[in-house]
Amino acid sequence: MATSLSDRLSTELAGLRDAGLLISPRVLEAPQRARTRVDGRAVVNLASNNYLGFADHPKLKARAQEYLEKWGAGAGAVRTIAGTLQIHEDFERQIAAFKHTGSALVLHSGFTTNQGVLGALLQEGDLVVSDELNHASIIDGLRLTKATRKVFRHADPADLERVLRENPTDGLVMVVTDGVFSMDGDVAPLDELVAVARKFGAVTYVDDAHGSGVMGPQGSGTVHHFGFEYADDVIQVGTLSKAWGGVGGYAAGHGDLRQLLINRARPYLFSTAMAPATVGALAAALDEVQADPSLMERLWDNTRFFKAELHRLGFDTMGSVTPITPVVFGEAPAAFEASRRLFDEGIFAVGLGFPTVPRGKARIRNIVTAEHTRADLEQALSAYEKVGRALGII
Predict the structure, then answer these.
(1) Does the structure show a pLDDT above 90 at 101?
(2) Most buried residue, 51, 52, 56, 161, by most Cβ within 10 Å?
(3) pTM summary value
(4) 280 in the same domain as 315
(5) Cβ(54)–Cβ(245) under 8 Å?
(6) Residue 14 lies in a domain
(7) pLDDT tens readout for residues 341-363
(8) CATH of the domain at 37
(9) Which of the residues 88, 224, 225, 242 is marked catalytic?
């Protein structure tokens, strides 16, 4: 007899509950800010990806309102039929100029960007070599292709070279890596990875979801940080939902990349175009990050202070060098309990366990933003010290 839907749901949820892995998201009752309101409580927010404070920024909201009034609530069609508004193409030229690439295309999320770009480029007979800690969207995107898929050890150029040498092909060869790794907060050694890729004639594909707006001049990204922004053999993709405060994804690179994606990227071909208000907010974000260097200065000042104080207290932050600051608690139940206790102290910081991170490496992932004040961070550090000592972590 077939398994019923009720039995499947009950079994799966019970398994998650018994393992201490069942997730019940908290609900924000105020805008996404450095201080917000969650489940009826005023809290310091260390849980968001709102690096530059753009999610509730007045200039982004004003541009969104302007585009809403002028262009309407929605695009009304997929881009290839009747949904391409002039503002879409204007924004894509803005991204290409910011990224110093020959072309750029906007898609609907960072996740679908990886599906669309990898699916459009990779064919049977091609070889793709992926960092073992790459984001789930890369893993899922690669599974949808017919390319030969191999993995190299995390951020290890020597192992990448081994894999490339052992797997010769006449097809396209692609090396895929995150720019900044979202769980550990470390940066891919792109200078070494690109050098190895070029040795084998490979394209380097960088998902810079957590690097855009954070790394490089004016937040131009990890690729720029390492000096590869004008390279036609480097593809930059990412999300517009983190530092940029909105939603969507982008792909930027070779001058012909955009045209191929328009014709082959399935998320682009079969999804209604981005809403005008979103385009307006994102265009304003790109303008603002280039006009106001103090945003990135505050982001990095806050990051350095917070990390230094966590280290002084004795916490393990896994060597993170970016605003992503994991604090390790071991197993998932300990991380979840720490998150609950921090919330009781007025700090919103979410615990992460398996399968999001490896077993034994459960953590709370903190993200410091440009909007946090020193008082916000000192309150958070005081709470961390109290909770860490109570749980025997420090």
Answers:
(1) yes
(2) 51
(3) 0.94
(4) no
(5) yes
(6) no
(7) 999 999 999 998 887 788 889 99
(8) 3.90.1150.10
(9) 242
